[in-house]
# Entry
Amino acid sequence: MKTSKLIIALLAALAAAPGLAENTGAGEITGKVVNVYVRDANNFFIETGLVRDKAGKQQWTEVRFAAPLADGRTSEMVRMPDAAIVERGDLVSTRLVEKRDSLPGLLPAVNRMVALVAKHDTLAAQTFDAPKPAAGNVPPSVQSLQALR
# Structure
């Protein structure tokens, strides 16, 4: 129990670090959960609030990125690990696969959630995609504080 609280505290500290919206490694990027879905047997994605029994079904999230990717995408569907508990507004680290033609007979690779970075009620999650103020609109006192960073 104590180790899980320590891990959560470490993740929250990492979430507050600058450069959060940047790529975190090869194919990994941090984004904000827009919605959580359950994949039905017929390959339909249904919002979790509309599903009675989620047991044994794949859960997916729609993740929005702070800046468009190189190919112009601003959001992507990402498969969650079976034990993950994610809510709308949480920050997650995702591993995106390259969009390419799949070979016949092989299962296509899917985008996956790597880790929960910050819960929806943290400052990092709430300010993740907040618009940055223009230089002329910032009061001088705020500019001096920003210069100290």
Notes: Helices lie at 2-15, 123-126, 140-148. The chain is about 20% helix and 30% strand. The mean pLDDT is 75. The chain has one domain: 2-148.
